[in-house]
Structure formats: C-alpha cells, structure tokens
Design brief:
The protein is of the alpha/beta class and about 220 residues long. The protein contains seven helices and ten strands.
Length: about 220
C-alpha cells in the first residue's frame, strides 16, 4: 500500500503581541491508504490544527504536505479549494449541514459543485443515504433529524465526492453514547469494506478503542 498523506517538518505558528504559539511544531508523519487513525491529546495540543493543515483549511508556517504524490502546501487558495473539492472529505463536530436543504440536497451539493451529471448525483445521493441508514429520510431537513442522523448525513456528504480520504474533527462530540457507537461502527464498516481512509481528531475513548493507530500530540509535537 502507498502513502496517501505525508507531512514533513510541519509547523503552524501563531503570533500575538506578547508571544508566539507553536500549535503544530515540526510534525513528520505518513498515512497509508485505508488507515483508521485517531489523533489524540489534551485541548491545545494541536489536533484540530493538524487536521486543518492537512485538509488545506489552514496554511503551514513551514514544512510540506504531500497528498497522493502531490505537494499541496504551496498551492494558491483557489487551487487548494479545487483540490479539496475532488480529494478530501470532511466531517465536523457541528455537522455543518445547510439548514434549508434536505438530507438528499446536502449530500448532493458537493457533487453539484464538481459538475457531475444530474442522474449520477441523484443515484449516488440515494445510495449513500441508504448506506448510512437514512433511507426514507432523504426529504427531511436537518432540524427534523436527530444529532446522530445529522452526523450520518455529514458522513454521506463526505463520501459523495469520492475523496481520497476523510478528515473527521471530533465527529462524536455532540452525540449520545448510542448514536456515537452506531456512527463509529458505520465508519469502521466503510473503512473495512471500501478501504476508505479515516483520520480522526478526538477526545473520545470509543474512537481511540476502534482506531488501528493512535497518535498522541502534546504542545504541537508527537508525544507517542
């Protein structure tokens, strides 16, 4: 198997009037296709910043990010937006669904941005909602769905673009224990059956227990 993500001496430094904060401090890592990996550590350890750098939501102060052989850390904002659209799926703690759109429309949205044919968009959106256990709820808006159901829509949306990997930032944080467990089982099944790479930032021990690799961060560095 090949490396899907490589970071080399990755740094993100924030400056304020009095000091500098090394949110990510010289991290070098490689992730294989098909990994199910948890990044853990106390608040302020750099977990979310690392995910945001890999996902191109933030730019590194120094270092390189290589995704599927392409060096992306030097791409322009426009180029990175286009790259994200076709290569990276995101699942956020706050779901980030569009409230005026139905479940099916939320899942379809990224495919519309990609310019896919209408027939393909319709069939894939329904296929994904069925895969995440939401068949029959495709016309429900986010406010009509439970937290666990909204996060399942978010998983389907992340998969819709057929990304190379999925970044999940505290995906279970707002869920009750049963919904969190069900969501994790779903993501593990997708990982095992379809070899989809999942990279989590989490405080949740349930995620850590299911991960096949755990990376511990402290003060922006790899501790373990």
């Amino acid at each position: 198997m090949s490396n899907i993500i490589i970071t080399k001496d990755l740094q993100k430094i924030y400056h304020d009037t009095a000091s500098e904060v090394r949110a990510v401090d010289g991290i070098t890592l490689a992730f294989l296709q098909g990994e199910f990996t948890a990044i853990v550590g106390p608040s302020g350890s750099g977990k979310t910043t690392l995910l945001n750098l890999i996902g191109g939501l933030d730019t590194p102060t120094q270092g390189q990010i290589v995704i599927d052989g392409q060096e992306v850390s030097s791409l322009s904002e426009k180029q990175m937006t286009e790259f994200r659209l076709h290569n990276i799926g995101f699942i956020f703690q706050a779901y980030n669904l569009i409230p005026v759109l139905t479940a099916k429309e939320n899942v379809s949205f990224v495919m519309e941005l990609q310019g896919r044919p209408r027939a393909e968009i319709e069939s894939r959106a329904m296929e994904l909602l069925k895969a995440v256990g939401l068949e029959g709820r495709e016309n429900s808006r986010p406010a009509q769905l439970s937290g666990g159901q909204q996060q399942r829509v978010a998983v389907a949306r992340a998969l819709a673009a057929k990304p190379k990997f999925i970044l999940a930032d505290e995906p279970t944080a707002n869920l009750d224990s049963k919904s969190a467990e069900n969501l994790l089982e779903l993501m593990l099944e997708l990982n095992q059956k379809e070899n989809i790479t999942f990279l989590f930032s989490t405080h949740d021990q349930r995620v850590v227990n299911k991960a096949r690799r755990v990376i511990v961060l402290e003060d922006g560095k790899i501790a373990e």
